[in-house]
Amino acid sequence: MTNEKSTCRHGCPVVTGFFEKRTSSVQYVVADPETLECAIIDPVLDFDPNSGATATTSADALLAHIEREGYRLVWLLDTHPHADHFSAAGYLRSKTGVPTAIGEKVVDVQKLWKRIYNYADTFATDGSQWDKLFGDGERFRIGNLDVEVLLTPGHTLASIAYLVGDAGFIHDTIFMPDGGTARADFPGGSARALWSSIQRIMALPDDTRLFTGHDYCPGGRKKPLWESTVKQQRVENTHLTKAKTEEEFVALRDARDRELPMPKLILHSLQVNIQGGRLPEQEENGKRYLKIPLDALEPAPWDD
Questions:
Q1: Which of 149, 197, 256, 293 is the most exposed place for a label (fewest CB within 10 A)?
Q2: Which phi and psi (to 5°) does residue 145 adopt?
Q3: Which own/partner contact pairs does 91-98 have at CB distance under 8 Å and 24+ positions apart?
Q4: pTM for this one?
Q5: What ranges make up the beta strands (E) of the chain?
Q6: CATH number reported for the structural domain that contains residue 55 in this entry
Q7: Under a CB-based contact definition with an 8 Å cutoff, are residues 77 and 93 in contact?
Q8: What distance in Å separates the CA atoms of residue 128 and residue 132, rounded to the nearest whole number?
């Protein structure tokens, strides 16, 4: 797993990104250099769909980094219920006792996917699987660092971004400039909502550091990247430079999304991630089972 520390200016957070190669996901440890308090953002629980095996290697690497740096973990933060990997928030919560949080609109995602999975009425859709649900504009602190929550839907109904000092953790809205923007065709997604969310991010100061949730190394780029700036995205982003208006962006995004297969783990991961990163309960034989609904999403582009 690749990790890299972002340079820190006075009064700004130290950000270390950890690239998880299997799902091309980026996990973050963001720390206050003065108090050494830190948060984990979007941790990954390892999962092999071929064998059904799970592991905590990626999450444990975050904890090892925190211990080496002398940090004190105070928050476990998810930006949205992920469709391409399991969240390790549940595991880390059980191991550390540190509170978990996500955006308050997660309840809408829970209601949507409760219907898709045909869960019983006993399945809670009130967000109680997390310790804290953040509203748009809500603020909290990591040490002496002020954190603001921005509602940034489009990729999902519940997506939020965290602004920590000069750093914005923008998840699946904008990728690196050569990767463009995130898809918006999942259940509850909206290209128009994504456009509005991107405009909100682009209104931040030019030198705001932006940390994205994935990097798929487009064009055969060898090294995964995850840090850019607002100015860099405005000038270089391959989608934002082509689509100057909302209508142009929606047309571009919709056309692109029609060409993309659904993520391999979407039906696996959502049932874990709408429960705060908790795996299904063990059955009487001591095993856990995932439930995969058939014909629940758009049909696959079958070969003729």
A1: 293
A2: -90, 130
A3: 91/45, 91/56, 91/59, 91/277, 92/40, 92/43, 92/59, 92/62, 92/63, 93/131, 93/276, 93/277, 95/63, 96/63, 98/73, 98/74
A4: 0.94
A5: 2-6, 14-20, 25-31, 37-41, 44-48, 53-55, 72-77, 86-87, 100-103, 132-134, 139-142, 145-151, 160-164, 167-171, 209-212, 227-229
A6: 3.60.15.10
A7: no
A8: 8
Distance CA 229, CA 174 (A): 11
What is the amino acid identity at position 89? A
The set of residues, in sequence order, having a beta carbon less than 8 Å from that of 71 and lying 6+ positions away, is 29, 31, 36, 37, 38
Report d(CA 148, CA 135) in Å as an integer.
10
In a domain, 193, yes or no: yes
- Residue 138 predicted with pLDDT over 60: yes
Residue 283 lies in a domain: no
Asked if residue 39 lies in contact with residue 29, where contact means CB atoms within 8 angstroms, the answer is yes
How would you write 139-156 as a 3-class SS string? EEEECCEEEEEEECCCCC
Identity at 149, one-letter amino acid code? V
pLDDT in tens, 3-19: 666 656 666 999 999 99
Which residues form the domain of 200? Answer: 11-271
280 within some domain: no
